[in-house]
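Weekly modeling sync, notes
Attendees: S.R. (lead), two postdocs, one rotation student

Agenda item 3: backlog of single-chain predictions. S.R. asked that every request posted to the team notebook include the full sequence so nobody has to chase files. The rotation student volunteered to paste the first one in as an example of the format we agreed on. Action items at the bottom.

Example entry:
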Amino acid sequence: MTAPAPTGQLPTAAEIVQDLPFRWGVQGRIFLIGGLGFMFDAWDVTLNGVLAPLLVKHWHLSAGETALLGTSNLIGMGVGAFAWGAVADRLGRKTAFSLTLAMFGVFTVLGGLAPNYEIFLVMRFLAGMGLGGCVPVDYALVGEFTPARVRGRILTAMDGWWPVGAALCAATSAWILSVVHDWRLLMAVMVLPVALVFWVRLSVPESPLFLARRGREAEARAVVDHLVRATGAEPRDYIMGSEPARESSPSMLGAVWRFSARRTAVAWALFMTILLAYYICLLWMPKILVGAGFVEAKAFLTTAGMALVGVLGVIVAALLVERVGRRILLAISAPAALLCLIAASMRLHDAAWVTAWLLGYGFLIQVAIPVLYAYVSELYPTRLRASGFGWASAASRVAAGLGPLAVVGVLWPTIGITGSFWVLLGLIVAALGLMWVWAPETRGLELE
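Predicted structure, as returned to the notebook:
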């Protein structure tokens, strides 16, 4: 190692980590492990839409009770998103990284054993609390290990796990139901892979940026030095560069808004509008298609195709996000996705027409969502990253949980499905307008 330079010229630990070469056996491994948790998030949300028509028959549910199936799970995810975000910012990314999936797995098993509708709702809420922490915690951890020059691509590619999980859920459900018409088996099938991923997550190191912020310098240096050796980078002297974080309120909500009210407003508005539209489609499209004359298996497979084509959308987003920028991609892809959804809703009895436009929607929405996740995770510094993302995610889950009660219960009977999608498009355009005037482009910026 060369002789140390004057302290003021030394790079910080964060700069060292974000300037390392990217290696699939090092940072890529963390990306893969984090992405698998994200896959289960998608699987579980999609499962709500699959379960709805099955549980209507099993427990003879009313329309309001059916809507609560998805609402209970999504509200639980909303509570979990900000709760686990606070845990990750106070106790560590690694702790939250492992426990989120453990909680989800336990209550998913109990939900599959539920003897009645009421207990099932409680179990889905608690399972949602566990899984709701996966997205903010995973993005914080993966982002803090990823070099700055490829961070946008990696964080965008994280969302590639979402269409995989959604498609696996729909396809697996269609296959199981063709053999054994048992909704409990649909929930049991995901427990083994969840347990395996939980076990693998225990081997992931703590984020050195988090350790530095908490004043745990020796541990931070150990992780940074290991990363330098593992990636084959040239060793350099460095300083921590961050004052230890002060204790804060458990929710971190006030700190998030004090850091930047405008950025936080934009993050919440984008999350609430774009993901409300997405969840309504994902949760209700199988029921819409069955109502339009599709048989159950075909409705689930159509939903699977809509989700799977999203992998192509994620690839396009990953290729363009560093070239075009976060804001421009969002401003184009999100409204275009809703226009496809509007077109599909205009001729629901034409199977070929509906399938074609839903495939277009599935592609475009999965350009928008991964860019959104990468963008919001970059709007906050390390001390607030998981909490800032978590609160925005929580707002979107609550909106997605309560939104269908308004959209399905009020808007659809009044102005129809197509008119309701136009309203959602208007909300998204308004959120994008706020982004354009209140939030910066984050392409290439250092995380601190």
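Discussion: group reviewed the output briefly. The two ends are 26 Å apart (CA to CA).
Action items: rotation student to repeat for the remaining queue; S.R. to check formatting next week.
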